[in-house]
Structures are given as structure tokens and as C-alpha cells.
Design a protein that fits this description.
Chain lengths: 338, 375
């Protein structure tokens, strides 16, 4: 089985997963949250655009030049992203579970669902995301409509929260995740014009910024956000005391569906890139390895925080490297993706 | 045939889902509806939990003898987790805090400097429903929890919701949820408020005088103490800093938007006011000290002469100024001026350096009340 994806579903998956990744990075998984997170989301989306552009430039119809090194860097980045996403799904499930369920039992259904979804190949994963993109605004509108009375626009001030440093660091961290999700440009089929991918990134960043603003209006900004636990942030997002009980089902759907789409796209990308890095390997085996790797890395992704900060720079360098014509002594192009 | 392994896999996945595996049976759960948290003289925490009996119509198993459909359990411990563990031990079923309706804390405990830490510990307790109503008890917490009984034909849980909604709608107490207090505790905006409660047989139940006479219900329940709600408390950085009576709470609730009507009594003549639009809060930071302005418009449901309207607006303005001054004296700002002032700042650092609590304490207060012609 060859893992592949067409351009249209790839853009849908990119849009859904980047929006989820930016929100997750800036409001839950990052070392701090502050009022300027919406601006970080916009910056992160913008920072991911050059990576997408370089990847698109490096790719030519019928003669892809993507080097294995570029692919390997993207594969590692996206595998880390998958681990982060899987950890988030597991933690969310643990937070909401009625019993003190073991992490393994929380991880297993998520891993199985991802395995099944990604096993259907890239187009299925991408088109599932395009269905989600159509349902998502309806659910969000329902939540916002019922929640409007509780939103406090005053709480988004001071508008730039932690200031330039915090905004920049948040953007850099989130941009790494967003850029890695563009990895499909290295192998996708059909019209892979970078401008369309850049458009999808822009939409995703705008949606993420909007979601962050709504979340900021939901809860008063904490004085010292650095010391806040993950549970505090997740509780603030899902069961914050201001959302009525009847809204918690659509909120759960929004949260878990967005996370599962992110996870599925992450795992698909890492599996597809693995297949291109290691010749003659079966796609199903790649999917299994990708999901297993995400599950195994879940436990250590907490310790990889410094790595996340530099992920974007590494991806940008790898994408630029992809433009270089790598040749052997004999002058033959050696870094083909086929 | 190829689908059989897939179906088996999906079924196995369903079994592994956290909601279905190890499901807690309702009969085995002790659902805490009211949780009282008090502090004993030796510094220990005392938890008192009101739990519904699960059985046939709240009757005892022996000979159908009628009894209370609720049980009250109490336990103490040196820390929150220790006290909770002990409560778990004295409760004959699995303690379940996911359906908590009301959390009551003693005034002594809420005034303790360690209370913010306790708030955090409580909120991070797994499966505790943080959206429960929250109140500070002037009198004995255990007695208050014990006195919580449902009206005939209702459940205690719906009774609590109805009571809190009713009191908040009239402004006797503010809308008060534990989660709101928790999130506002670490925030750099205005200080959070919580409802006050007490038992009407208690000597300290001063705020009750404004709503009911302590003996008003004597004919109905001569030997029982009844739980009451009235007034509010203001927290500063998670520590109780100021208690307000019912009248002040009614004024504050209008500003906070949790109620929109106010009854005045002028020389024995009742006057019902309704708030028109939202209160307008302004902060003039150019002045030194800063000036805070509160503008409110009311319509009178009775017909008032022009002179009377003027007198009513002046009376209300004086009451609001007194309320603002008492908050300034206590170093709290529960009105919402902070988020208005924060608009002028671009970053947290500049806002924090501005030191709003100190600025508000020194601020000049201007209150403008307009009474519109009645309907």
C-alpha cells in the first residue's frame, strides 16, 4: 500500500489541523498563556508560510526533488507533534473520565481510532477533515450563541498580554507545529501550488486567533500564568463554570474532534514520510509504526520542551535545503523522493 | 468475512472506552450535594457532606419507618486531601463530588491567608464539580449543612438551585460559583464576590434582619434552624477582605448585572426601581488620584414627582458612594472598574506597574444616578 494524498483533501486536513495545533500550543500546551496569544497565532501562521512556500518551490510535477534529509526532518517533527496531540487527547479523556482509569485504557481507543483512520490512506483522512470543516462552524456558532451572555470582551485587555517576548516565543513554538503539518507538500499529488497552501494556512491562523479571543473573553486573565497547571487550563476551556452544562456536549465534540483530526493528520504525515525515507516498506507497516511511535513518545514529550522552540527554525532550514540540487560525485541527482 | 476482525477490533475498542470500563454503579455512589468546609480551633479542616440516601423513597429498610432522605457525614483532617480521605472513610459508599451543588466555607477559614492554596487544592481535586454554588457561612458550617433540607416534593439539589437563583435575581446575594472565585482569584481584574449564608437561629446572622426577622418563620418551624442566604463577601487575592450586608449587596448586584430591580422605602412609601441599560463604568487615569465614575439610569415603576425623583437619585448616589468608600477602605474593588482601566494598557507589565489596587484605594468616586419617568 502506498500512502498518498491529493492536493484538495491535503489542504482541508492542513487547515483543520493547523487551527487545532495553534490553539493547543498557545492556550494549553505552551509554558504560559496570556492575552497576546491571539497575535502569536497570527504570527505563527505567517511564520509557517515561508516553509510551505519553500516546500512547494522544491516540488516539480513528475520530478520531485525532495531530499530524504528534508523528509526525515519533517517526519521527526511531525512524529513529535503526533505525540503531543496524543498526550493531549489522553489527558483530556483522563480529566473527563468518570473513574481513575489507567492511561493505557485512555490511550488505547485513541490509538486504535487513529490507526483505523490513517489506515484508510491520506484522501480519507483529508476528506474527513473537510467534513469537519463544514460541521465545525455550526457547532461553534451554537456554543457562542448560547454563551454570548457570559463573554466579557473587557477581559482581552491589555491586548498584547505578556508583550513582545512572550508573543514571539509563543509564535515560534506554535509555528513549528504548523510548519510541520505542511509536510504533505513533499509528496502530495495533483495541484500543489504553494499559494493555495499559504491560503489554507492563513485561514487556519485566523480561525485559531478568533478562537483564542473567544477563550480569553471566557475567563479573567490570570496574574501569573506561568505557574498554571495543565488541568487549570483544560478546566478553564471545557468546564469553566461559565459554560452551562447543556453546552458541554458541543464543547466536548469541538475539542475532541479537532484533536482527533490533528492526530490523524500528524500520524498520516509521519507514516507517509517514513515510507518515502525507507524504500520498499509497506504503507500499513508505516502507519502502525507512526501510531506506535506517537503513543510511545507521549510519555516523554513533556521533556522535549526546548526542542519545540527550535522546531520551526529546523523545518525552515530543511525546507530551504530541499531547494538545493544535491548531487553525488558523478553528478547524478541522489536525493529523489521516489 | 474480512470484516469480522474489524468488527471485533471495534468492539474491543468500545470495551476499552473509559466511559464504559469500570463504570461506577449509582447505588455504590455517595453523591455529595452540599459540602461544608470549616476550620476547627486546632487548625484542622472539618468537612461536612450532605448525601442523599439511595433507597425506596427515602425510607429506612426496617419496617418502612420514615426518615430523612439525606444523610450528613463529617470528617476532619490537617489538610484538604487528608480531610477528604477521612470523609471517604466515614462514608459507607464511594464519595462522589461530581454532582456537588453547593460549597460552603466558614468565614474564619475564608479569611485565612492559606485559603488561596485551599481554593487551588479543591479545584484540582479529580472529578469535583467546580461549577457548584459557593457561599461563605457566618455561623457554624456543620449546622448550616445539617439544616439543608428539601421542601416537600422536591429534591435538595433543585431546592438549592432555585434558592440561589431567587436570591441572586433580587440582588440579596451575588451570582456566586466556586469556579468563578477560583478563576478570579489569580486574575488582575476586579476582585471576586461570593454569597453569604447563615442559619437563622444564629446570633451572628445580622444580614437576615434586612430580609426576614429571625422569628418570622417561628410559626412554621419552631424547633428547627433554617439555612438562609443574604449579603456577600469580597475576596482579595483569594482571601476574604470585606463582608457586605444585604442592602450593599443589592447595590453591587445592579452594577455586576446579576439583578436589575431595586426596592426603596422612602418614609414608608414603597418605590420600585428598574435598571435601564447597563451601568456605565469609567476611569479617568489622567487625574491624580484617578477618578472612577459610575452612571446608572433607573425607571421608577411607581409614579414619582420630580422633586421625589431627585431625592431618590441623591439617596442612591450617596449609598453608592458609601459603598465605594467602604470598598476602598478594605482595599478591594469588586465593581469591574479594573477591566475598564486595563483597556488603556497594551501589555500586562505596564498594567501591573500601574498598580490598580493602590490607585483605586486613592481614587475619587463620582456617582451619577438618573431616575427616568415611571411607566
Amino acid at each position: 500500500m502506498k500512502l498518498s494524498v491529493s492536493a484538495t483533501p491535503a489542504r482541508a486536513a492542513l487547515c483543520a489541523s493547523v487551527a487545532a495545533r495553534l490553539f493547543l500550543s498557545l492556550m494549553l500546551d505552551g509554558p504560559t498563556t496570556h492575552n497576546g496569544a491571539w497575535f502569536s497565532a497570527l504570527l505563527a501562521g505567517t511564520a509557517a508560510m515561508p516553509v510551505a512556500f519553500l516546500l512547494g518551490r522544491g516540488r516539480r510535477p513528475n520530478s520531485p526533488r525532495a531530499s530524504r534529509l528534508t523528509m526525515a526532518v519533517f517526519m521527526l517533527a511531525v512524529a513529535l507533534d503526533a505525540a503531543e496531540a496524543m498526550r493531549c487527547v489522553t489527558r483530556s479523556a483522563g480529566f473527563l473520565a468518570l473513574d481513575d482509569t489507567r492511561p493505557l485504557f485512555l490511550l488505547l481507543p485513541v490509538a486504535l481510532a487513529t490507526l483505523w483512520c490513517v489506515g484508510k490512506n491520506g484522501d480519507a483522512t483529508g476528506y474527513a477533515a473537510s467534513v469537519w470543516i463544514r460541521i465545525f462552524p455550526l457547532l461553534l456558532a451554537l456554543v457562542l450563541l448560547m454563551q454570548a451572555r457570559h463573554l466579557r470582551p473587557r477581559w482581552i485587555f491589555p491586548l498584547f498580554g505578556g508583550g513582545g517576548g512572550a508573543i514571539g516565543l509563543g509564535a515560534m513554538r506554535a509555528a513549528g507545529g504548523a510548519a510541520s503539518l505542511c509536510g504533505a507538500l513533499l509528496f502530495q499529488e495533483g495541484d500543489g501550488r504553494p499559494s493555495r497552501t499559504v491560503g489554507a494556512l492563513a485561514i487556519a491562523a485566523a480561525v485559531a486567533a478568533l478562537l483564542i479571543v473567544f477563550q480569553l473573553m471566557m475567563l479573567p486573565t490570570p496574574l501569573n500564568a506561568d505557574s498554571l497547571s495543565w488541568i487549570y487550563r483544560l478546566d478553564g476551556l471545557i468546564t469553566n463554570g461559565r459554560a452551562p452544562l447543556y453546552l458541554q456536549l458541543p464543547m466536548m465534540l469541538l475539542w475532541f474532534a479537532a484533536l482527533l483530526h490533528l492526530l490523524a493528520w500528524d500520524c498520516f504525515l509521519s507514516a507517509a514520510l517514513l515510507q518515502r525515507c525507507v524504500p520498499h516498506i509497506n504503507g500499513r507497516l508505516c502507519v502502525l509504526i507512526a501510531v506506535l511511535a506517537a503513543a510511545l513518545l507521549t510519555g516523554i514529550s513533556d521533556h522535549l520542551e526546548p526542542l519545540f522552540r527550535w522546531r520551526w527554525a529546523a523545518l525552515l532550514a530543511a525546507a530551504a535545503l530541499n531547494l538545493l540540487p544535491l548531487r553525488t560525485r558523478g553528478g547524478r541527482v541522489c536525493a529523489e523522493s521516489h | 468475512m474480512r470484516r469480522i476482525p474489524l468488527i471485533a477490533l471495534l468492539l474491543a475498542a468500545c470495551v476499552a472506552l473509559s466511559g464504559c470500563a469500570f463504570r461506577p454503579e449509582v447505588e455504590n455512589q455517595a453523591y455529595v450535594l452540599v459540602l461544608g468546609i470549616g476550620e476547627l480551633a486546632d487548625g484542622q479542616l472539618e468537612l461536612t457532606a450532605k448525601i442523599p440516601r439511595i433507597g425506596e423513597s427515602g425510607k429506612d429498610e426496617k419496617e418502612g419507618e420514615a426518615s430523612s432522605p439525606y444523610q450528613t457525614f463529617s470528617a476532619r483532617g490537617s489538610t484538604w486531601s487528608n480531610a477528604l480521605e477521612n470523609l471517604q472513610w466515614v462514608t459507607p459508599r464511594e464519595l462522589n463530588l461530581s454532582h456537588l451543588k453547593l460549597m460552603v466555607v466558614s468565614e474564619v477559614l475564608a479569611s485565612d491567608g492559606q485559603f488561596p492554596r485551599l481554593i487551588r487544592e479543591i479545584s484540582e481535586t479529580p472529578h469535583l464539580y467546580t461549577t457548584a454554588h459557593f457561599a461563605v457561612c457566618d455561623s457554624d458550617v456543620a449546622a448550616f449543612v445539617q439544616a439543608q433540607l428539601p421542601v416537600i416534593g422536591t429534591r435538595l439539589s433543585s431546592d438549592i438551585d432555585a434558592a440561589m437563583r431567587h436570591y441572586a435575581a433580587h440582588g440579596y446575594i451575588p451570582e456566586s460559583l466556586f469556579a468563578e472565585l477560583y478563576y478570579a482569584t489569580g486574575s488582575y481584574y476586579s476582585d471576586p464576590v461570593a454569597a453569604r449564608c447563615f442559619t437563622d437561629g444564629d446570633e451572628n446572622a445580622e444580614p437576615a434582619a434586612l430580609i426576614v426577622s429571625p422569628n418570622a418563620f417561628a410559626a412554621d418551624a419552631p424547633e428547627e434552624v433554617s439555612p438562609r442566604f443574604g449579603g456577600c463577601t469580597v475576596f482579595r487575592r483569594g482571601v476574604l477582605a470585606l463582608s457586605l450586608g444585604v442592602r450593599e449587596t443589592q447595590l453591587l448586584s445592579l452594577v455586576l448585572g446579576s439583578s436589575d430591580t431595586l426596592d426603596l422605602n422612602r418614609d414608608g412609601v414603597p418605590c420600585a426601581l428598574r435598571l435601564e441599560g447597563r451601568p456605565k463604568l469609567e476611569v479617568d487615569q489622567q487625574d491624580d488620584p484617578v477618578t472612577v465614575r459610575l452612571e446608572m439610569r433607573f425607571s421608577c415603576l411607581n409614579s414619582l414627582e420630580s422633586a421625589e425623583s431627585q431625592a431618590v437619585s441623591e439617596q442612591l448616589a450617596r449609598e453608592y458612594e458609601a459603598l465605594i468608600h467602604s470598598c476602598q477602605a478594605a482595599g478591594v474593588e469588586p465593581f469591574g472598574f479594573a477591566s475598564v482601566a486595563a483597556r488603556r494598557f497594551l501589555t500586562d507589565a505596564k498594567w501591573i506597574v500601574f498598580d490598580w489596587p493602590a490607585r483605586f484605594a486613592q481614587a475619587n468616586a463620582e456617582v451619577r444616578i438618573a431616575i427616568l419617568p415611571g411607566v
